[in-house]
TrEMBL record, chain A:
Its EC number is 1.14.13.149. The keyword Zinc does not apply. GO terms for molecular function: phenylacetyl-CoA 1,2-epoxidase activity. Pfam families: PaaA_PaaC. The keyword Oxidoreductase applies. It comes from Aliiroseovarius salicola. Keywords: Oxidoreductase. It is an enzyme of class 1 (oxidoreductase). Residues 1-29 are annotated as: Disordered. Residues 14-29 have a biased composition (Basic and acidic residues). InterPro entries: Aromatic_CoA_ox/epox (IPR052703), Ferritin-like (IPR012347), Ferritin-like_SF (IPR009078), PaaA (IPR011881), PaaA_PaaC (IPR007814). This is 1,2-phenylacetyl-CoA epoxidase subunit A. The gene is paaA.
TrEMBL record, chain B:
InterPro entries: Aromatic_CoA_ox/epox (IPR052703), Ferritin-like (IPR012347), Ferritin-like_SF (IPR009078), PaaA_PaaC (IPR007814), PaaC (IPR011882). It comes from Aliiroseovarius salicola. It is an enzyme of class 1 (oxidoreductase). This is Phenylacetate-CoA oxygenase subunit PaaC. One of its GO terms (molecular function) is phenylacetyl-CoA 1,2-epoxidase activity. Keywords: Oxidoreductase. NCBIfam families: PA_CoA_Oxy3 (TIGR02158). Its EC number is 1.14.13.149. It holds the Pfam family PaaA_PaaC. Coiled coil: none annotated.
UniProtKB/TrEMBL annotation, chain C:
The gene is paaB. InterPro entries: PaaB, PaaB_sf. It comes from the Bacteria. This is 1,2-phenylacetyl-CoA epoxidase subunit B. It comes from Aliiroseovarius salicola.
Length: 329, 253, 94
């Protein structure tokens, strides 16, 4: 997902006997679905895991501006340009909400950004794939944001109050993203043969990266248990992935496009679609920094930050001078 | 009743300014110095795209050949564009982008306030809507110019360089020709020359607060609003902006 | 001195007559820019008619440990709620 492979600060789940009184009380609150708020007592590992998860989620939103931003100057109509710009702007807003949520735990945004730029924090693997034709913009909105929504709807119930509230706000805005994406690709799937070919190309290229967003299979996912117990994570990777596939396959069929995976078949017995596993070696390569766009994406962010330093410093210096002048009056 | 072709030219000037500048501003998306600025710049660009749809939509209507705002934006070549040169200049650093924005916003605010009482109701209505947006733009770009001009030594130096670079492109906004003469005669728009005094006062007050010096030279580059001679930059912008429409003619998006 | 812009908490009044509600936070060099940034960040969908920005360090907050003493006493003062009083129907609405 936007937060993939978050290492819980400890391995395994603490059982009640191992817990201190404070920890037991904390776990009871979570089990009663009470929200944890910034100044409440919390285990150090809970705090550390949350900072990592919210930070990675925020980084994903911000880096996620880049693949779609790649097409803003080439949008084919004024209306599409406005829609795409408003959509990418929302991603910046979502990044901002999530950094703010992380800041309630005392971790500054600048510090999180520094960790990202030094390669010590990650962002979602999906944004290391290129956007190559205009249909990719539709596909990103529909498939990538669609996958994100599946996860984020679940995360509205997460135990940490500020994270949950950020997710509620984000979910309200995200359905615009998925719908504008599907609308754009629909226009192409029902358009000229060249447009339909672009739509098919986009779906073929982005399908597996999209289902990788949910992270490794549950059997391989070693960090989930404690996060689930703490309700930092609410549903398992495989559950969410299945939900996404089930909702998306009929949408592909409606467009009249070929399914991007020959393994997709309705399974009557399970009441779900079967589908092929993505190439997990590719996933781990991307996570390690070897995806098609990792180097460029990070460079873009680092450049924006470094080139902007004089602006941030300049405006702050002016604000300080101004308040000194006011104080002197 | 003004000559419809002259009215068309006049509307292209307004619509091409917002089209080209909105496009330039949108190039920042994802690359601004801080998230808050990124979001704010996108809002400015969105307002300008919206204004473009209105101005060029009306231009197409006045022309009467069935061309939509999109046709005008995506299917004309460089020599048919009527924007001032200022707005097509490349973004440069963030400071130059905001300086250009302020120099344009200050003009736009004055122009729109006059157009709000245009004898043409359609123009008055668009101006009325746009002037609310521009009132915010000019406040924001003006404050940023002040903040950066009066900020650190580096930000001051960069802002002075931006002003020096852009100033020769300011004069074109105040030049008049027979199209403007026809608009004045029909009570549609003011003579651009008449806006200069108010503009200079506004710009001077912001630059003083920003501790920046307006260059002494009165030299003004021109050729954009007549289409006679654009900069080389516009063609490159159109290459990307118009590419899909040109490569796949007749497709609907 | 850190060069990170200060953090501001943003409160927005959604419609006339309603109180300001906390909507989130953001960074800005000063109060004026905080208001402008709030306008750009938090009212993209017509959410507000009035904005307050308060620098986060200036917010005094109750501490969670005091939750008992601060709020529980009011639990027992049920007479503060109108439903505590049984008024005969004949009296009419009150």
């Amino acid at each position: 997902m936007y937060a993939q492979m978050i290492k819980t600060a400890r391995s395994g789940v603490k059982n009640r006997e191992e817990m201190s009184d404070q920890e037991r009380e904390f776990q009871d609150r979570i089990d009663r679905d009470e929200k944890i708020e910034p100044k409440d007592w919390m285990p150090d590992d809970y705090r550390a895991t949350l900072i990592r998860q919210m930070g990675q989620h925020a980084h994903s939103e911000v880096v996620g501006q880049l693949p779609e931003g790649n097409w803003i100057t080439r949008a084919p109509t004024l209306e599409r340009k406005a829609i795409l710009l408003a959509k990418v702007q929302d991603e910046a807003g979502h990044g901002l909400y999530l950094y703010s949520a992380a800041e309630t735990l005392g971790e500054s945004r600048d510090e999180l950004v520094r960790l990202l730029h030094e390669g010590r924090m990650k962002y979602s693997s999906i944004f290391n794939y290129p956007t190559l034709n205009w249909a990719d913009i539709g596909a990103v909105g529909w498939l990538v944001d669609g996958a994100a929504i599946v996860n984020q709807v679940a995360l509205q119930r997460t135990s940490y109050g500020p994270y949950s509230r950020a997710m509620i706000r984000i979910c309200k805005e995200e359905s615009f993203h998925a719908r504008q994406g599907y609308h754009a690709i629909m226009q192409m799937a029902f358009g000229t043969p060249a447009q339909k070919a672009m739509a098919q190309d986009a779906v073929n290229r982005l399908w597996f990266p999209a289902i990788m967003m949910f992270g490794p299979n549950d059997s391989e996912s070693t960090h989930s248990e404690q996060s689930m117990a703490w309700k930092i994570k609410v549903k398992s990777n495989d559950e969410l992935r299945q939900q996404f596939v089930d909702q998306t396959v009929p949408q592909i069929e409606y467009l009249g496009l070929d399914l991007p995976d020959p393994g997709i078949k309705w399974n009557e017995e399970r009441g779900h679609y079967d589908f092929s596993d993505p190439d997990w070696n590719e996933f781990f390569d991307v996570i390690k920094g070897n995806g098609p766009c990792n180097v460029d994406r990070l460079k873009d962010r680092v450049d924006a930050w470094e080139d902007g330093a004089w602006v941030r410093d300049g405006l702050l210096a002016h604000a300080r001078k101004k308040s000194a002048r006011t104080a002197a009056e | 009743m003004a000559d419809q072709d002259q009215l068309f030219q006049f509307l292209l000037r307004l619509g091409d300014n917002t089209l080209v500048l909105g496009h330039r501003v949108s190039e920042w998306c994802g690359h601004s110095p801080v998230l808050e600025e990124d979001i704010a710049l996108a809002n400015t660009a969105l307002d300008m795209i919206g204004q473009t749809q209105l101005w060029l939509g009306l231009a197409g209507e006045v022309e009467g050949k069935g061309r939509s705002a999109d046709d005008l934006a995506f299917l004309r070549d460089v020599w048919d564009f009527r924007n001032v040169l200022l707005v097509e200049l490349p973004n440069g650093d963030f400071g130059r982008t905001l300086m250009r924005q302020f120099l344009y916003d200050a003009w736009s605010q004055i122009m729109l306030s006059k157009l709000a009482s245009s004898s043409d109701d359609r123009i008055a209505a668009i101006a009325e809507k746009a002037s609310k947006e521009v009132a915010y733009h000019v406040e924001r770009s003006g404050d940023t110019v002040i903040g950066l001009g009066d900020g650190t030594e580096e930000s001051h130096t960069r802002m002075q360089a931006a002003l020096d670079y852009l100033w020769p492109y300011v004069g074109e906004m105040f030049q008049s020709d027979e199209v403007d003469g026809a608009m004045v005669a029909a009570g549609i728009a003011p003579d651009p020359t008449s806006l200069r005094e108010e503009y200079d006062a506004k710009v001077q007050s912001v630059m003083s607060e920003a501790t920046l010096t307006i260059p002494g030279s009165k030299y003004a580059h021109k050729g954009g609003r007549t289409g006679y001679m654009h900069t080389e930059h516009l063609g490159h912008m159109l290459c990307s902006m118009q590419w899909l429409q040109r490569a796949y003619p007749g497709a609907s998006w | 001195m850190s060069n990170e812009w200060p953090l501001w908490e943003i409160f927005i009044r959604g419609q006339h007559g309603m109180s300001h509600r906390h909507v989130g936070s953001l960074h800005a060099p000063d109060a004026e820019m905080a208001i402008k940034n709030a306008r750009d960040v938090y009212t993209r969908r017509n959410e507000g008619v009035s904005i307050w920005a308060v620098e986060a360090v200036h917010i005094a907050a109750s501490s969670p440990e005091e939750k008992g003493p601060l709020y529980e006493p009011s639990n027992s003062k049920v007479y503060r709620h109108p439903t505590f009083f049984d008024i005969p129907d004949e009296v009419g609405s009150m």
